[in-house]
């Protein structure tokens, strides 16, 4: 009897040893560009620990909102709170919205170029007027910083002057245009200025005209692997992510 039981246990152990491990998931993340640097810093640990593979797809918040509304499949979306809430109302996102990060807008110049005075609203206004060219995200592309800045220059009474010398970018890093010499000043979210080699952050916009954007996450209603997507969201929202956020020019909301 004991021999038979022992043989059954050995057979079961052999089956367990020979069994293939559970397949790792591929997690598709739609993310606004401002979160790109944070994700690239946090994902290696997550992939190493879980075995999952994360596929990042970066675009402006407006572009991503349209793609989600159009029915594109994804596991996790990281965009603005308004876009997440709208997608949830449309049945594209499930579960509670999770606010991950907050970032303000800054001004950049080419590395080695003199930094303009932007310490006050009037100084910032004069710096924009004095610059030969100003780069920012094309508002039509749906980028939050571009939409805000395009409205701000009107409020400052210099909309026509700045637009006449604007260097618009549909997406990506606006500071690339100052690094390459195509623009004298760049106005973009701070987290999207810091990673650009050849560009230097002058500083944030003056407090009275600063605009901070919150980035939130939501799980896709048609996620390929909901458990893997939730594990990634938990990783991004964990206390250990705070140090990475700060290093990338962002902070917890």
Question: What report would you give on this structure?
Answer:
Helix 3 (61-69) runs parallel beside helix 4 (81-89). It is elongated, with a radius of gyration of 23 Å. The protein is α/β, with parallel strands linked by helices. It has helices at 2-18, 36-50, 61-69, 81-89, 121-130, 144-155, 159-164, 176-179, 226-236, 241-247, and strands spanning 26-32, 53-59, 76-79, 93-103, 105-110, 134-137, 166-169, 185-189, 199-204, 213-220. Helices cover 40% and strands 25% of the residues. The N and C termini lie far apart (64 Å). Strand 1 (26-32), helix 2 (36-50) and strand 2 form a beta-alpha-beta unit. Residues 1-22 have low confidence and may be disordered. The protein folds into two domains: 24-103 and 213-247, D-Maltodextrin-Binding Protein, domain 2 (3-Layer(aba) Sandwich); 105-209, Periplasmic binding protein-like II (D-Maltodextrin-Binding Protein, domain 2). The strands form two sheets. The chain has a five-stranded mixed beta sheet, sandwiched between helices. The protein contains ten helices and ten strands.
Q: What's the CATH architecture name of the largest domain?
A: 3-Layer(aba) Sandwich
| Individual helix count | 10
Tell how many strands the DSSP assignment holds: 10
**Helix/strand order:** HEHEHEHEEHEHHEHEEEHH
**Strand coverage percent:** 15-25%
Principal-axes geometry comes out as elongated
Q: Look up the CATH topology of the largest domain.
A: D-Maltodextrin-Binding Protein, domain 2
Structurally, the number of domains stands at 2
Helix content: 25-40%
Radius of gyration from the CA trace? 23 Å
Which stretches of 5+ consecutive residues score pLDDT under 50?
Answer: 1-22
Largest sheet: 5 strands, mixed
CATH class of the largest domain: Alpha Beta
């Amino acid at each position: 009897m004991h021999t038979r039981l022992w043989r059954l246990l050995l057979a079961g152990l052999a089956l367990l040893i020979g069994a293939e491990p559970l397949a790792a998931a591929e997690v598709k993340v739609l993310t606004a560009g401002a979160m790109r640097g944070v994700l690239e810093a946090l994902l290696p640990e997550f992939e190493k620990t879980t075995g999952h593979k994360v596929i990042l797809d970066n675009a402006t918040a407006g572009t991503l909102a349209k793609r989600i509304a159009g029915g594109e499949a994804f596991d996790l979306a990281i965009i603005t709170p308004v876009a997440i809430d709208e997608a949830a109302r449309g049945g594209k996102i499930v579960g509670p919205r999770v606010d991950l990060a907050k970032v303000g807008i800054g001004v950049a110049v080419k590395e080695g170029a003199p930094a303009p005075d932007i310490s006050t609203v009037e100084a910032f206004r004069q710096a924009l007027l004095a610059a030969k060219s100003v780069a920012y995200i094309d508002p039509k592309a749906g980028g939050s910083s571009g939409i805000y800045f395009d409205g701000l220059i009107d409020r400052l009474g210099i909309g026509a002057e700045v637009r006449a010398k604007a260097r618009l970018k549909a997406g990506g890093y606006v500071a690339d245009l100052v690094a390459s010499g195509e623009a004298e000043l760049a106005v973009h979210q701070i987290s999207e200025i810091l990673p650009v080699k050849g560009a230097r952050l002058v500083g944030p916009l003056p407090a009275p005209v600063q605009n901070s954007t919150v980035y939130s996450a939501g799980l896709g209603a048609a996620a390929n692997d909901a458990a893997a997507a939730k594990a990634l969201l938990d990783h991004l929202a964990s206390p250990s992510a705070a140090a990475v956020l700060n290093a990338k020019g962002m902070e917890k909301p």
